[in-house]
Amino acid sequence: MRALGPTPDGYVVHRIADTYLVLDRAVSGDLVRLRLAEPRTRRRLFARAPLRGRGSAPTVPVRSGLDMVLRRYRHGGLLARLLGPLYLGPRRALDELRVSAEAELAGAPVPHVLCLVLWPQWGPLWSALIGTREEPRGRDLLECAQAAAAGEFRRLGERVGEAVRRLHDAGVDHPDLQLRNILVVDEEPEPRVVVIDLDRARYHPSGGVPGRRRAANLGRLARSAIKNGLWGGVVGRRELAAFARGYAGRDRELRLELRGWSARERLKIALHRLRYRFLRAPQPAKP
Fold this sequence. Notes:
Elements: E1 11-16, E2 19-24, H1 28-32, H2 39-47, E3 51-52, E4 55-56, E5 59-63, E6 66-72, H3 78-82, E7 87-88, H4 91-105, E8 113-122, E9 125-133, E10 138-140, H5 141-147, H6 152-169, E11 172-173, E12 182-185, E13 192-195, E14 202-203, H7 211-227, H8 237-248, H9 252-261, H10 263-280
Helix pairs in contact: 6-8, 7-9, 7-10
């Protein structure tokens, strides 16, 4: 138990052989029965799982009316080839649990973490899984944008702005805020927005994310729209205005603060537009 350190209220720790399970106390019995501490169980679950984000992510029934999405921790970028699912200690997963628990307690629109599965591989290197409550009627924002009719995405943009503002006000700095990390859940009378994948997020306990980090998060979201070919089309001036209306509302002070911090982000956005315009330019035919 001491190897993991403290866990948030409402979670219990089980150790089975060399594997640690950090479980939502309310469903801990159901989660233990899934046998996630056994390597063969994990291999079986991931063998036929659909791809989501950086890797496969199976949906696992926990109890009637409650399913869980199970995700491996994997490095991205250059570290993906070198280390893949290996991390120095179990801290990455535990940090996500702590940030998620604090965010949820503050009313932020984040998924509820049901479990962590953590085990040492060799030496100081560990691997981990995280299980979060599945949103069965959820689609990521990129999918929504690609399927949206004229004006529909504009209305959705305001809801997304409100959700990101709640996330930031709760103290969650999400450096990987991109279209695939925002889920839109089909509900009545209005869709519900959930921000996912908090594995790189940081929690600011002092009462909200600083303006510079807010601008950086929003800039990351804008660059995601550029990368996916939505900027200037599906995401135009009216859609951006709707997002800003949802995010800042009538908070004039916040609008001015963001404007002051956003100069660097505007430069990044301009460079991204040039880059992807060049990459998508038709290549001259070979003679």
